[in-house]
Amino acid sequence: MEIGPLELQILLAVIALHPDGYGVSLQDHIEKRTKKAPSIGSIYAALGRLEEKGFVKSREGEKTAERGGRRKLYFTVTATGQKTLRESLAAISSLQRGLRWKEAFQTVAEAFA
Amino acid sequence: MTKKEGADKQVRRLEDADIDVAYGCPDLRPAIVEMISKGTGKGRTTPPTVKSVAEPPRWAEGLLVVCTGSAKRAEVIHGDLCERFARDCATITPKRARFLFRARVLASVLPLLGRTIGRMVKWTAIISAAKRLFIG
Description:
Radius of gyration of chain B: 23 Å
Radius of gyration of chain A: 18 Å
Strand content of chain A: 15-25%
Order of helices and strands of chain A: HHHEEHH
Number of helices of chain B: 5
Shape of chain A: elongated
Structural class of chain A: alpha+beta
Helix content of chain B: over 70%
Oligomer: heterodimer
Low-confidence stretches of chain A: none
Order of helices and strands of chain B: HHHHH
Largest interface: A-B, 21 and 27 residues
Number of helices of chain A: 5
Low-confidence stretches of chain B: 48-53
Largest sheet of chain A: 2 strands, antiparallel
Strand order of the largest sheet of chain A: 1-2
């Protein structure tokens, strides 16, 4: 099953923050690593898609005063999600290995010579 | 300083402090309560409630319910936005924090709405296909 770039980032962030991955912490983690912050809406839309596909599951957390007495929703990656993530990363890695860096650099060097 | 200037200054201080309290700076609450008890508060007879402290604009939750189609999910998203708002209040001015809160809500509307509409279209297509197949 296919997953998009944002979904891939979210799955990696959920694993990195396990078991404390929720909206704000996921956004902070992604922003820190990629220097780009997806909106909370984008994160929840992607998490909704991942939940529908069975890649993540959620559990309700505690209510806090700074959230105006609203609950947190923590996410964890399921076994299916981990398998899909491994396959996606392996595919990216495989494509990366096929790159002809040496030739590409030579072309660029020739262009600037 | 004349008596009138003194009164104006007190009213201004109260208004400024009131805004700060309303947007997440509860440290100023005792000062406001004291000012109100001394009768210097203009147009206000009761101290701000605990509920008004750190409570960002309320229209956001209604908008998020419409966009997500789920009150439970909207509550969680609104909670996240409130958490960001409370953190912002500690570092930047309340006015800027309110502006950022509104910007974050509006940035969240489009992806959530897109997903909700997508789901509605998908289910409408499934139901109409099932109707055509079984009813005729």
